[in-house]
Each structure stands twice: as structure tokens, then as C-alpha cells.
């Protein structure tokens, strides 16, 4: 790379700065494609440039010359070597205009050296580019997009373009374009094509290359003015008679003045660097209008040529070439339906600025949740826009500068209509995005302070502020709500831990406190637990604040179906059947006493009820699909049922669980809007049309949108979903028919290997009833489950409240005051700003001393939530950002949420069903217990006690 640095200069002086610039330009090119399609009235998205293919041939050959100069013999370039090649000849315009329209012409070659090595060469029929660099190139494309008539072209060239790049630059660009398009093109076999940009040629250094017609090529007749496809017809006639032959030449680099690498407008003149013939390209004689040739041409049209499909010995050089990698990847993925561009209406962009400013000012005096409903809804729109702009931080590693690569493998067609087990290929243009092993993102910049890891002592924090002295119930919910969120979190997040006893975190204990770290082990003065496995920074610098997710980041039901193929297949009935294995309606149990399911960590009674219920639901969906579509294979039945159940879970969480825990009219409307669009009220419709029109349909009817950062769940999201206070310490198991108490159990009596025997003895109906008629704990201070403060897991005894505090600190999540300020809430100036409870304030002062040291989890629990909320407004801000993102980034919940993928039955199943109908399908005897007008997460009707065993306390 040091050698390459002699020739190249990066925008902004650094590859990372240039990369961000190129990514913005790539998004601009995708919008150019949309504009060209709209203006041209086409049904599909075309290439940004070279939209109209004239010839596509897979059977060409490239042969290197026997007398290849010694200094040019490197890599695949060796004397006499011959390789198969694919050729595409085209018009250069981004619209499929008639061949007689003034235009440049292009040639693209793919030289196949071996299974893992190819080289793409891209050329145009003029020796220099109209653009000096990528920015000029994109501005020209934006100006000319859809300019399909003479007046529009004139306006673009003489008004739009000068405003974007300046008058002198626009004049130079117009001159170069005219110079390249003024001559009459009779045949693409007679044109010369130049690379215009340089590539490395091994130790010979930079070269530019050109493709010239062989000297004995026969002439072509004048084009017919009435034939819009005369270039194709001319080539067809030519190839019926003989081969079409070109010769490949290279020009060597001389110096930065005569042969510049970074300036695409500078010609490498032949008197300074004479062309040297290196190879011959032959397109064999054939009938290109035969069915076989047309099929081959169609395959060529689907190819995504990119000069970075090469090896480092032949690395592309210069600004334009470096931009080509990301730009061509984006535009090709857009054209092939693998990536999407969401164009915000201009009114939304213009009006969004004053909207956000107005609500920022208003919220200094009146918070959003105290406004009238229509204003509250608009306030949330403005807040979400602000959070999207400021609080999505890209943590993915990126290559800068770009590197060469083999031609990307074709996408497995099955991945277009089925979720992978590990989350790969949800975004077809970025297959590993959100997959198992992808790093957690950030909503706030990490704050890594090792000197504060144990300040204040987390054990002291737990005992003084979190320990449950008396159970504080959340009376608007039932324990199914607590079970549900753990059911979801098991799908979303899983920080991988080192094996017990290897790499550990050591937490010093306060004076006179000891701890037993293992069952039967000695008492110690430190608390130990397994450390999370971090990801080391790519450059080896900086603190370890990145962690991989051992689950996929997508909403894909992995807690039911597993996060890898081996697990997923093991959960199905033998011989690849579609249904999940169940043992008399219950999850099968493994040798360790835990169930065989997608994710069985932290297993307890409520989690078993949820996973059993949805495993049964999967099997019922399979039966319905088989009846409706008897020709579906078992694999397709399984994958379709998996899609249906995963989407149904997402819907239940969006429109039922969340409005139950955030019980306000504004949230209820807002979340239903996320799924199905806004209510049919003209004021709501008008507000969204003016400020965020993408919300007018509901997210499942939109295109995927990552909002400027690769999709992932975030460490901040993990922090606000620490909802362990929802769990009680004891549970009543009740007979749903008689309201009779069967037994009262502590948490340890219904977790781990004790869970499944209890589930089988009690039955699913009684289990759901027992959880549905009891309240969970409130998410507040002094309400952490006692059972979780001495919890045995994987051979170690942990205080989970201490673990939660320590994990948050060590992962670099900002402390509470910085956390809320980063989410656009006013900073606390004193402890009294956090809570109005005098005892809580006194304890906070005693434990923390400084308000800026309050732990994030403690601050979230202490904060007075809005009326009807089950958790704080600060936590809610992460929620409103990430709740829509989990839906809108997911291809299977947006562009591929359609009958062709889910089947009509599957779409109808999701539309008609919710938590109540799922419960009643599998436990119809509970019909009289479920709430009439509320969700299944609200308290159920308690049956009057009858018979032996007594009442319910």
C-alpha cells in the first residue's frame, strides 16, 4: 500500500473520510436510478449508466500475446495464456434511448482466470472522462437523470449542472461530453474503448488500457435513421459472417504530470506513453438472435461488473476507480432488487426542520406526553426524526481504502423467500448485516472509564437501591407480559460469555460482605462471574467496547427455531418434516433436563409457556398450509410457517405488548400506525403527509430503510430492556376451571430443570391462566427479584443485579445523566431532579455523591415515568428509535412481506390473529378468562375459588 500511496490522494486526506463521501455519492446514484425510471416510465430500475445493452456474449476468449513484454508479465498476464471472457457492449446513457441518439459507448469484460479469480475491465469510447473525480461524476449524473428531451438536457447542462459544480467546471464537462458523442457510430465492433482510469499492473506500476478493433475489421454501413436498435442489428449481421476481434493495449505510467492517476479528465497522450499490445479478444461467429444467445445475453444483463473484481496485483487506482467500488455495488444491488432507496418527499425534508425546532422549544416547557393527542403524535414524529439523525452510530468495520475481491458468489435463490437460521442474507446487498456474530451497534458514543468500573461499588448500589424489600406490583399487567419480553429478548440479544472459570470479572465486595461464587465453594471477598467476549478493534487501538451478538439481530423467532442450521434441523421432526418436535404437546427435554428449543438459557416457567405456545402455533400453521397448498414441499411449508409465526410475534409485540406496558392513547395510535398505518382521521393523515409521508401506509408496506447506518441492535437498547423487576419471587399455580390454588412456588422451584416437569404436571392451560391472573413487578427501584440476587447459572452463583450494573459500565454505556442528555433530554443538576421521593433521593446521595455517577439502570428505574408508562421516558426514547428500526430494516417485514413469499393464507393468518386468538387456538377452555376489551397482557378474569385447596389469598 505504501507503493500505491505514491500515486493516490484521498479526499479529505484519509481513506475513512473518503469512504463516507463515496457512500453519500452511492446513495445519490441510487436516487438517480429512481429518477431515470420515473422520467422514462420504465417498470424496472436500470443501470445508472450503460443501461442499454447492445451485445452480451459469454463465449468470448482473451489470449495474451506470445511476445508480451517481460515487465508486463505478471499474475494471469503471461505469454500465450488464454481465458474465457464475458463481453457486454452498450450505450453509455442511463436511459434506454435509440441508438442514433448522441451518446458514448461502453465495453465491459469479465476475464475468468479460475474459480476464485476473475478480472473485470470497464471502458468507454472516449479517452477521458467528463468528470475529474467522483463528486463531479455524480453531480453530472444527478443533473442529467431523466433528461430525455432536448429542452430538459439543455436545462440540465446549462442551469442545473453549473449550479452544482460551478460555471467553469460545467463548461469543461460539456466540452468533454460533446467531444465524445459528436461522431456517428456505425458499429460497436469498430469503436475504440479506453479505461480512462488507471489500474496497477503488478510491478510494472499503473497503466491505462484500451480496446481497439482489429485492423482487418470490415467496415459498417451507415445507420438506418428509422431503426432505434441498428447497432444490435449491425453486430448480428457481422457475427453471422465472422468473428469480431479486438486488441487490448496498455499505456505505462510515466509521471504525475503527464500520466496523472487521480484526474479522470487528463488524457494519457500516446506520444508520452505509447500503447503496447498485450492481448487479443475474440467474440466468435454466432447467431446472437438465437434463443440460446438471447438467454446468454439476459444472463450478462444480470451481471454486476466492477473493476474491483480483480486481485491486488491489478488493483484499480485513482479517485474515480475508488468510488466505483461502493457506487457500483450500490447501484447494481438497487437494480437487482437487493438494495433499496427511500426518497423523502421534498416537503418532508423542508418542513421537518421547523417541526423539530418547534417541538424542541415546546418540550422545554411541556413534555410530549402532556400534549393533546394530535400534537403528541407529531411530537413523537419529530423526536424520532431527531433520534434517527443523531443516534444511529455505525460500528461495522469498513475497508478503507477499498480492496479487490473475487466476483461475489450468486445469492442462493432459496434465501429470497426464506429466512436463514443465522440471520445472513436478510439484506441481500450486505449478507452479514445483523447476522449471528455481528457487533452490537450504538445509539450513543461509548464512554470507557475503567477507573469507574467499581465506583461506586456495584454491590452497594444493588443492596441500597435495587434489593426488593417488599414486592411492588404492576397492576395493569399480568406475568405473561414479563414472560413475553424475556421471550423476545432471547430472540434479539445474547452476549457471548467466556466459559465459567476461565476469563472472569472480579467485583470487590464492601467491608464485612462475603460471597460464595460456586455452589458449595468457599466464601470470598470478591464476586466473580464470566466475562463477555469482546471484539478487538480492527486497528488494534482503542478500548474493547464492541461485542458480538451470539443471536441474530433480526426479529426472526430464533428462540423457537434456533440460530444455526444444525440446531434448527434438530428441532424438526425426523427426515426434514415441516413441524417442530413436540412430546405430547410439550417441548422435548434434553439430557440436562432443559428443553430442546432454539434458546433455553435462563429457563423458567413463563418462558416455557411462551415457547411451548408458539411451537404449537408453528405446527398448526404447517397443517393449514398443507391443506391449502398440497403441492408445497415440506421445506417450503416449514420456512413459510416460520415466516408467518415470526411476523405474528412481531405484530403482537408491536400492537399488543407495547401498548399494554405503555398504556396511553398516543402510544396505542403510534404503534398501530407503525404496523397498519394511521387512523382515517384527516388531521393525522395531513400531519404525516406533511412531515413523514412514509408513515402513511404502515411499515410493512414500505421499502427497507436502515436510516444511514447498517442495521443492528445496540448496547443502549440492551440496557433499557433490563426489566428483571417484572419477575415476582413467588408464584401461585391455579386450576383455571375452579380457581383453586394447586401450589405456591418460589422462583427457584420453577426454573431450570424443574420447569418442564412442572409444565407437564400443570398443563399449558393452567400455566397460562396462572400467569395471566397474577401481576408482575413494577420496573422501579427497590424491586429487583430476590431470587435473581443469588442465582445459580452455568456452575456459578451470581447476583444478576450486580452483573447488570457491571456489564453496562464495562460495555461503555454512558452513565445515566450523559445517557439522557445524549437522547435530547435536559441534564440533571441535582438528585432532586430525578425523583420526588425523599428517601430515594437520600439513598442516591449516599451511594453516588455526584449526580453524574448515577448508573444508567438505576436512573432509568428511579425516573418518574409518564402517566400510564411501565418504564421511563428516557428508556422510551431508545424504544421509539429501535422499535420502528427493527421492522423497517427487515426485508421480510417490508418489501418481502407479501403473498408471493408468505402465501395468501400466511398473510391472512397474520392479519387476523393476535395473542388472544393464539392462546384460544391452543387452549380454548380459557375463553372466559381472557380480557374482553384489553390485550392478553392485561390482567385476566379470576375464576371464583371452588373446592378443596382454598382461595387465592
Automatic annotation (TrEMBL):
Keyword Metal-binding among record annotations:
yes
**May I ask which residue range the UniProt record assigns to the signal sequence?**
none
> According to the UniProt record, where is the region Disordered?
211-231
Q: What is this protein called?
A: Catalase
Q: What PROSITE patterns does the entry give?
A: PEROXIDASE_3
Q: Name one Pfam family in it.
A: An_peroxidase
The taxonomic lineage of its organism, from the top, reads: Bacteria, Bacillati, Actinomycetota, Actinomycetes, Kitasatosporales
Alphabetically sorted, this entry's keywords are: Dioxygenase, Fatty acid biosynthesis, Fatty acid metabolism, Heme, Iron, Lipid biosynthesis, Lipid metabolism, Metal-binding, Oxidoreductase, Oxylipin biosynthesis, Peroxidase, Plant defense
| PANTHER family in the cross-refs | ALPHA-DIOXYGENASE 1, PROSTAGLANDIN G/H SYNTHASE
Cofactor(s) required for function per UniProt: Ca(2+)
Q: Where is the composition biased (Pro residues)?
A: 216-226
Which Gene3D superfamilies does the entry mention?
A: Catalase core domain (2.40.180.10), Haem peroxidase domain superfamily, animal type (1.10.640.10)
Amino acid at each position: 500500500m505504501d507503493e500505491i500511496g505514491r500515486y493516490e490522494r484521498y479526499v479529505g486526506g484519509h481513506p475513512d473520510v473518503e469512504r463516507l463521501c463515496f457512500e453519500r455519492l452511492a446513495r445519490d446514484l441510487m436516487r438517480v436510478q429512481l429518477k431515470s425510471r420515473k422520467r422514462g416510465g420504465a417498470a424496472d430500475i436500470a443501470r445508472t449508466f450503460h443501461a442499454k445493452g447492445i451485445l452480451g456474449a459469454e463465449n468470448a476468449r482473451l489470449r495474451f500475446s506470445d511476445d508480451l513484454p517481460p515487465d508486463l508479465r505478471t499474475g494471469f498476464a503471461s505469454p500465450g495464456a488464454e481465458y474465457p471472457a464475458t463481453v457486454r457492449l452498450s450505450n453509455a446513457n442511463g436511459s434506454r434511448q435509440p441508438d442514433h441518439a448522441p451518446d458514448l459507448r461502453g465495453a465491459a469484460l469479465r476475464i475468468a482466470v479460475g474459480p476464485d479469480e476473475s478480472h473485470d475491465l470497464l471502458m468507454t469510447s472516449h479517452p477521458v472522462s467528463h468528470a475529474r473525480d467522483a463528486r463531479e461524476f455524480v453531480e453530472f449524473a444527478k443533473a442529467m437523470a431523466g433528461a430525455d428531451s432536448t429542452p430538459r438536457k439543455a436545462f440540465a447542462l446549462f442551469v442545473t449542472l453549473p449550479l452544482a459544480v460551478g460555471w467553469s467546471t460545467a463548461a469543461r464537462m460539456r466540452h468533454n461530453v460533446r467531444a465524445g458523442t459528436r461522431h456517428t457510430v456505425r458499429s460497436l465492433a469498430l469503436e475504440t474503448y479506453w479505461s480512462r482510469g488507471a489500474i496497477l499492473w503488478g510491478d510494472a506500476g499503473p497503466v491505462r488500457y484500451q480496446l481497439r478493433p482489429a485492423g482487418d475489421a470490415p467496415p459498417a454501413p451507415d445507420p438506418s435513421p428509422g431503426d432505434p436498435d441498428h447497432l444490435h442489428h449491425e453486430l448480428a449481421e457481422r457475427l453471422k459472417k465472422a468473428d469480431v476481434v479486438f486488441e487490448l493495449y496498455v499505456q505505462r505510467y510515466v509521471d504525475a504530470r503527464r500520466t496523472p492517476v487521480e484526474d479522470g479528465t487528463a488524457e494519457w497522450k500516446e506520444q508520452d506513453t505509447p500503447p503496447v499490445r498485450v492481448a487479443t479478444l475474440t467474440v466468435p461467429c454466432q447467431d446472437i438472435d438465437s434463443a440460446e444467445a438471447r438467454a446468454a445475453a439476459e444472463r450478462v444483463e444480470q451481471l454486476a461488473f466492477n473493476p474491483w473484481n480483480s486481485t491486488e496485483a491489478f488493483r484499480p487506482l485513482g479517485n474515480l476507480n475508488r468510488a466505483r467500488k461502493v457506487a457500483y455495488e450500490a447501484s447494481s444491488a438497487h437494480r437487482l432488487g437487493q438494495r433499496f432507496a427511500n426518497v423523502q418527499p421534498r416537503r418532508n425534508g423542508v418542513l421537518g426542520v421547523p417541526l423539530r425546532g418547534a417541538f424542541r422549544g415546546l418540550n422545554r416547557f411541556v413534555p410530549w406526553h402532556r400534549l393533546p393527542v394530535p400534537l403528541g403524535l407529531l411530537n413523537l414524529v419529530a423526536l424520532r426524526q431527531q433520534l434517527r439523525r443523531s443516534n444511529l452510530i455505525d460500528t461495522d468495520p469498513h475497508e478503507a481504502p477499498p480492496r479487490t475481491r473475487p466476483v461475489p458468489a450468486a445469492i442462493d435463490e432459496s434465501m429470497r423467500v426464506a429466512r436463514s437460521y443465522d440471520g445472513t442474507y436478510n439484506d441481500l446487498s450486505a449478507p452479514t448485516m445483523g447476522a449471528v456474530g455481528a457487533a452490537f451497534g450504538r445509539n450513543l458514543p461509548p464512554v470507557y472509564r475503567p477507573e469507574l468500573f467499581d465506583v461506586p461499588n456495584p454491590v452497594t448500589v444493588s443492596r441500597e437501591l435495587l434489593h426488593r424489600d417488599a414486592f411492588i406490583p404492576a397492576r395493569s399487567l399480568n406475568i405473561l407480559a414479563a414472560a413475553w419480553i424475556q421471550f423476545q429478548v432471547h430472540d434479539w440479544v445474547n452476549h457471548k460469555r467466556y466459559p465459567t472459570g476461565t476469563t472472569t470479572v472480579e467485583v470487590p465486595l464492601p467491608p464485612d460482605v462475603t460471597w460464595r461464587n460456586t455452589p458449595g465453594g468457599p466464601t470470598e471477598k470478591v464476586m466473580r462471574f464470566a466475562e463477555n467476549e469482546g471484539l478487538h478493534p480492527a486497528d488494534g487501538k482503542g478500548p474493547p467496547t464492541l461485542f458480538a451478538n451470539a443471536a441474530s439481530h433480526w426479529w426472526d423467532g430464533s428462540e423457537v427455531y434456533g440460530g444455526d442450521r444444525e440446531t434448527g434441523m434438530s428441532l424438526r421432526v425426523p427426515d426434514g418434516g415441516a413441524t417442530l418436535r413436540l412430546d405430547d404437546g410439550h417441548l422435548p427435554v434434553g439430557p440436562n433436563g432443559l428443553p430442546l428449543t432454539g434458546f433455553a438459557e435462563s429457563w423458567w416457567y413463563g418462558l416455557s409457556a411462551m415457547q411451548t405456545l408458539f411451537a404449537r402455533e408453528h405446527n398448526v400453521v404447517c397443517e393449514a398450509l398443507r391443506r391449502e397448498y398440497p403441492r408445497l414441499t415440506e421445506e417450503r411449508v416449514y420456512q413459510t410457517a416460520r415466516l408467518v409465526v415470526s411476523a405474528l410475534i412481531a405484530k403482537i409485540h408491536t400492537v399488543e405488548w407495547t401498548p399494554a406496558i405503555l398504556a396511553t392513547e398516543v402510544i396505542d395510535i403510534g404503534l398501530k400506525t407503525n404496523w397498519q398505518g394511521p387512523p382515517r382521521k384527516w388531521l393525522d393523515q395531513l400531519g404525516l403527509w406533511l412531515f413523514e409521508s412514509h408513515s402513511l401506509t404502515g411499515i410493512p408496506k414500505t421499502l427497507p430503510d436502515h436510516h444511514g447506518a447498517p442495521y443492528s441492535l445496540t448496547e443502549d437498547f440492551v440496557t433499557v430492556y433490563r426489566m428483571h423487576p417484572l419477575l415476582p419471587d413467588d408464584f401461585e399455580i391455579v386450576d383455571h376451571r375452579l380457581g383453586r390454588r394447586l401450589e405456591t412456588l418460589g422462583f427457584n422451584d420453577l426454573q431450570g430443570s424443574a420447569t418442564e416437569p412442572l409444565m407437564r404436571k400443570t398443563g399449558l392451560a393452567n400455566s397460562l391462566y396462572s400467569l395471566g391472573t397474577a401481576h408482575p413487578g413494577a420496573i422501579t427501584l427497590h424491586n429487583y427479584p430476590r431470587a435473581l440476587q443469588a442465582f445459580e447459572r452455568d456452575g456459578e452463583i451470581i447476583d444478576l443485579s450486580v452483573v447488570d450494573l457491571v456489564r453496562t459500565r464495562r460495555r461503555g454505556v454512558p452513565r445515566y445523566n450523559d445517557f439522557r442528555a445524549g437522547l435530547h433530554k435536559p441534564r440533571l443538576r441535582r438528585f432532586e431532579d430525578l425523583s420526588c421521593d425523599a428517601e430515594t433521593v437520600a439513598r442516591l446521595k449516599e451511594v453516588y455523591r455526584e449526580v453524574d455517577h448515577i448508573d444508567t439502570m438505576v436512573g432509568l428505574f428511579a425516573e418518574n415515568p409518564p402517566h400510564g408508562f411501565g418504564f421511563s421516558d428516557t428508556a422510551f426514547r431508545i424504544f421509539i428509535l429501535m422499535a420502528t428500526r427493527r421492522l423497517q430494516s427487515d426485508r421480510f417485514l417490508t418489501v418481502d412481506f407479501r403473498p408471493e413469499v408468505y402465501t395468501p393464507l400466511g398473510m391472512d393468518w397474520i392479519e387476523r390473529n393476535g395473542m388472544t386468538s393464539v392462546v384460544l387456538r391452543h387452549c380454548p377452555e380459557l375463553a372466559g378468562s381472557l380480557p374482553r376489551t384489553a390485550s392478553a397482557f392485561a390482567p385476566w378474569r379470576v375464576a371464583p375459588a371452588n373446592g378443596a385447596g382454598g382461595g387465592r389469598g
